[in-house]
Amino acid sequence: MKKHILFFSFITISCSIFDQQNIETPYGKVYVALQGLDAVGIVNIESEEVERVNIEYNSMGCGNYLSQSECEVDAGCVWHNMGSMSHCMDSIDECMNLNESDCINSEGCDWMMNMCMNSGGSMNMGTHTPHFISIDDINQYWFVTTITSGYLGRYNLDTDELIDNIFVGDSPALISLNEESKKLYISRMMPMQGMMTGSESSLIQEIDYSDPIKMIQSNEYVIGSPAPHGISINSAGSEVYTVSNTADWFYKINLLTNYIEGAPLDSNLNNSSNIAVNRLKPIQCLSVNDSILFITCSSGIAYNSYTGENDTIPGIIQMWNSNTMKLIDNLDFSWNSSPWHLVNSPKNNSIFVVLSGDNLYPGSAGVVNIQYDDSGLNILWDNYSELFKTLHGIDITNDGQLLFVSGRGDGMLHLFDSESGELIKSIELDENLASIMAGGISSAY
Hints:
The chain is mainly beta. It contains three helices and 35 strands. A five-stranded antiparallel sheet has the order 1-34-33-32-31, with helices on one face. A four-stranded antiparallel sheet has the order 4-3-2-35, with no helix packed on it. A four-stranded antiparallel sheet has the order 9-10-11-12, with no helix packed on it. Strand 17 (228-233) and strand 18 form a beta hairpin. The radius of gyration is 22 Å and the shape is globular. The protein starts with a strand and ends with a strand.
């Protein structure tokens, strides 16, 4: 039997949220990327049942590219020139530099075609690792990116059936939608401190999904920094914003003129846009009111090349004027808070931010509600708990009453009252919580 974390205030809070509206089934579904299971969990909030859509695309893999041009488009592949036996293979291959003797004696390596390569590695048929989910309420689709296999999948929002997928390669990460033009924009995954390989490209892709059967890539934009992870679009659909996780630069892409403008997140550092400084480590950006843009900076421990020591940098929420590309205000948190994803309130001028936290410091993870105006930021409420383990994704209901937060480290979907910040309940996403690795989420109501 599933066990759920219940708080004494659950009955009071849930009644006040559900019963006052006289709605028997108040909310629909929440989609959660179950990275460790290669699936998307679909959570019924009322019944707490979790259905699962398995990600079973046919992974391309480097070994499936037949031409040098196709191979070299994928940053994770390299063309190995062997005359008539030339082929595409993984660019990251620990076995490649070994001679025949060392190769034979090395676990996980095979000597094939007069060279050493990973055992079975040339096909790269690994897991998909679903990462981020975005919902198009107007056209009734939901989308998911898969980091490892490099796909974007499109599903029917009513039936949750797969419509089509498109191979985009190079660690696709976050999604920003233009529901009117039926176009979306995909960022790249950042390096995960040795746990997962991230993108080395500077690419933002535009995908056209106006055809109800098949998506196509309609454009791409190359910024001046690697690993553009955070991404957002203004309500007019005329500008896309992105932030480089490794270079700490912010970019504005004018979709009408293709002009790209950039600015460093820390003007005091004055770092070059193409150098990975890995200091502020921005995660997500969010455009609101078409002139204000928020950026979450996970920060933490960063190596200082000038002193030869590690600096501890506070987690930061930045507020920018996206028209002038000027920083308006900073809000600092503890160095181990790790601000992650965020969502805007549909009711007032406030945002909700996930603090991922550090598992070595219990109580460092939480959720905060931040009010904003033209001049700056201030905290309305916060909720930290030792129950939270590496919080990740966040979304809010259309009426602005409920917040949903995924726990990458605890395997839970947490529900919060957006007004008070109190935890209503936590739903287990699988029986084996340690295997889930819950990532991005999106709610459908």
